[in-house]
Amino acid sequence: MSTHSVIECLEGIQASRLGNIRNIYVYLPPGYHEQAVRHYPVLYVHAGQRAFGPSGPGNETWNMDQAADGLISSGQIESLIIVGITHVRPVTHNEFYHFIAPEGEAVSVGCSGIAYEHFIIHELKPIIDHRYRTLPDNQNTGLLGSSAAALCTLHMGMRNPDVFGKLIMMSPFYVDVQLDETSESGLLEEDMYRLPEEVPAVRIWMDIGDTEGLFLPSQVRRVAHQLLERGVRSGEELAFLEQPGACHQEGDWGARIHLPLLYMFGHVGKPSSLELLGRDVIGLQGGMTVCINAQMHYESGLVQSLLHGNYTSSDPNVLQVHASGELVPVGIGSASITLTVGELSATRIYTVVPELSTHVEVCIHAEVAPEEDSEETIYGGMGMKLVRSGKGRYEGSYRVPRDSGFSFRFTRGFRRFETDVDGKPIANRVFRATDDMSEHYLIQSWGSTSAKTGTGGPK
């Protein structure tokens, strides 16, 4: 049997209702051509031009083929076909939006998600099922997307459970959040998702990093709990993960793609350990909600964050805890919180201080070489606008949620990113807003559009 996978390209596949064509990349697992009678489950992947390799110089890739190869060769998951659907970037309509576009885009960009849904179900899937040896039923058909494509996955999956029985949503764009100095919270928030009152019987993976700017873990956790309230069973039908240190970009999604693949197509195995993560200092006053990120590790390597559990406090007069992991401060002091799941347990000490605000002030100062100084404004992460304050100097102040983490590179306009002095891409700048802070940066040069590797918003 062949030990190598194969990636084929189907060129010029037409989407009739969208009026466009695109390439489709198809991953065939090791042994596909040798095992001529075997049929395979299929995972459809939005924005698939980056699933198996970079779409252009400087762009990141998920390396999903390498992850699948490793899991298949080790026997951790069943062999499967992966279909990467190239994304056609919006001009007048966005195929990842079913119902509403963000307010900032709605003036110029409409929603073509239902036409895109028609393309996948009624035009692309029949081609794949005819050309390849698939298991075409819903229990063997999955859908995966990140950011805005994850929002699309949610809507498409909820509308078509007879087609898609496995939904993988990584860093989903459930809430459009903009910095807004005029609002009390400092943010302008708009829900982008729609959930049916009766959630169909599908299997769901949902995750988020804690360094994704205004893509906040609390937003995704809230949607997960809404699914539980509608009868979805945690663990069996819904897995959630809050990944420490993970950013909103392809490299980070690729680094953990093996986890949803394990959950959907593999052998999870037995739980092996528990870990309590996240903030361990809580304010008695100030209004900041703190939820424990309780991670369960499995023998297979799977990790998920528990949405509910059996928690106890060593001193309920200081700190109490809901089954959801939300901490409830009662008095100033310290207390140990213990989570017990079967034979496993984990304990961590938490401290309650008099007050902790929900938001902090972040000041950003950037210097640009004089020969590079030609803009009145530049931008940091998530729309952070910096205004020229002097020759080669820019600055801005922002009120952001406490503990939010940002990974970004400076831009001077759409896809016009900073580079090193040789015009090559640089690593993203990262900071976490745990308290009021002031950050100073030096911009070496402005490069071409090909230097993009980071993120500034939904994909």
Automatic annotation (TrEMBL):
It comes from the Bacteria. It holds the Pfam family Esterase. Gene3D superfamilies: 2.60.40.1080, alpha/beta hydrolase (3.40.50.1820). PANTHER family: ENTEROCHELIN ESTERASE-RELATED, FERRI-BACILLIBACTIN ESTERASE BESA. This is Enterochelin esterase-like enzyme.
